[in-house]
Each structure stands twice: as C-alpha cells, then as structure tokens.
Amino acid sequence: xxxxxLQAVHKINTDIRDDxxxxxxxxxxxxxxxxxxxxxxxxxxxxxxxxFEIKPLLEEYYFDRPEKVTELIxxx
Length: 76
Prior knowledge:
- With 76 residues, the protein is mainly α.
- Helices cover 59% and strands 0% of the residues.
- The protein has 3 helices and no strands.
- The model has no long low-confidence stretch (mean pLDDT 94).
C-alpha cells in the first residue's frame, strides 16, 4: 500500500507542479494518508481518501478540465 500511495502522489504532484496554472504550492501532501480508521480495511480506506478527499481537491484545481481529473484518478 505504501508503494501505491507513493506512486499515486508522485503522479498527481508531477502534473500539478508542471501545470502553468498551479505549480509547486498546490501539490498534495502526506496528511491525506496519515491514519487508517480501525473499522476500515486498507483498500477501502485508500479508495475513500481518493474519492472523498483527493478527487474533490483535483476537481477544484481543474474545474475547467474535468478530463484531467479522470486521467489523474484513473488507475489509482
């Protein structure tokens, strides 16, 4: 799971950093992935973080490019 998180964050942050409208200050950090609630399994927890925290943030960043959000979330 750690490798999966690292790959996902790297993929998203590379795109954010290279985007002319965003940049380094908009990158996501580790705080999204700091603790797993006891009642959730690792996989469900990760899916919830992506669906309810990361995706909404990316939708704000790329409000005019929803296809970009789909591209970044796909395969996570």
